[in-house]
Amino acid sequence: MPALEVNFDGLVGPTHNYAGLSYGNVASLNNAASFSNPQEAVLQGLEKMKAMHDKGLTQGVFAPHARPDLNILRRLGFSGNDAQVINKAFNADPILLRACYSASAMWTANAATVSPSPDTTDGKVHFTAANLNNKFHRSLEPATTTRLLKAMFNNQNHFAHHTHLPDQGFFGDEGAANHTRFCDSHGEQGLEMFVFGASAFNSHLPKPVKFPARQTLEASEAICRLHNLKDTSQILLQQNPDVIDQGVFHNDVIAVGNANVLLCHQQAFLNQQQALQDIREAYIGNKQFYIIEVPTSKVSIQDAVSSYLFNSQLVSLSDGSMLLVAPKECQRNSAVNDYIEEMIMADNPINQVRFFDLRQSMQNGGGPACLRLRVALNEQELAAVNPDVILTDTKYTQLCNWAQRNYRDQLGAKDFADPALLSESYQALDELTQLLNLGSVYDFQLEG
């Protein structure tokens, strides 16, 4: 059955801010305490979505999370009405409060792992929200993410939803940021590549020394089991621990794949040459499989991290070619820009590049690929998706107007003491759930 890949991009939340909460993410740490512009951020993301829609691609929208998370603040001992909880938290622990205001769910590549139906033994599309338990501010997300996924993919005949893995470091799971699928076409069985940073149980495998390995081998193995993946549709590889210690906190900061192409840095994987050979041998398609290995001599790890070359999107166009969707930081970095020009002229399917201004996201450590969750769907499955989360020209205009009405154009540290920010955010999200026909998915709606 014909199939296509839909990118569901996360809408940036109304409390988008720079708190430097993500240890191991160099951009996040470097921009801590800067003023953010939530309105600019959400409009930049929507502009990218609209550009993909205009290219003829099916583009989806993923709603943000409700912030601040008052339930967790109350669990941590802050009492009173909403305004009192915020005031007490601001005075007692402003860093904790900022973590509860985090809008990091905008990076939807971390939201979940998705296995398309050709790869699963039961013929369903499987979803497991990531537990994201390596970072407190992200560990707040899985339950709401699961509710959002069920509101978007609400048909048991086609979609299977799983509870996120145990909230424990042994099963640290960061979703599709460490998962890539290779295939001849999206409707055929593919090879799902799971990349882990360390093993929780096998002490013989190497680990990074400076920064944490957020994805464990055991988590990836569990996802394979939960998703009923065919044996021939899975391969598990270890990320190079040395590059994790240089700021490569996810595989999608050092490698990106699409269809029959893997674009990766020379230092992406542990025992790289063997890892690449294993991928070649495991690939089950009939088309030529392209591995584009970027040498350190042309793009250093530092340049890869600062430009987010590998956090670009690779998308297939209707003519069979591939487009690299890159942040403007790649264009501004001479070494990276020179390599991209060389790559699109070489003998491989990537023959176009388009640069986007995603500065608000980039300064917090997320590029184009971080902003989207890829879901391969056949015609019947696509017809079963909530149609109101699929971008159209009209929906784009509605979302832009919604953001301009509801989002502030500046947020700084003192703004988090303002209880009006909470009411503004909740009002915006309540309106959004109607616009996207999601029903009641947020705690404040379920409790109201």
UniProtKB/TrEMBL annotation:
The active site is at E174, H250, C370. Coiled coil: none annotated. Pathway: Amino-acid degradation; L-arginine degradation via AST pathway; L-glutamate and succinate from L-arginine: step 2/5. Its EC number is 3.5.3.23. It holds the Pfam family AstB. InterPro entries: AstB_sf, SuccinylArg_d-Hdrlase_AstB. GO terms for molecular function: N-succinylarginine dihydrolase activity. One of its GO terms (biological process) is L-arginine catabolic process to L-glutamate. It catalyses: N(2)-succinyl-L-arginine + 2 H2O + 2 H(+) = N(2)-succinyl-L-ornithine + 2 NH4(+) + CO2. The keyword Hydrolase applies. It comes from the Bacteria. Keywords: Arginine metabolism, Hydrolase. Substrate binds at residues 19-28, 110, 137-138, 214, 252, 364. It is an enzyme of class 3 (hydrolase). Belongs to the succinylarginine dihydrolase family. Catalyzes the hydrolysis of N(2)-succinylarginine into N(2)-succinylornithine, ammonia and CO(2). Homodimer. This is N-succinylarginine dihydrolase.
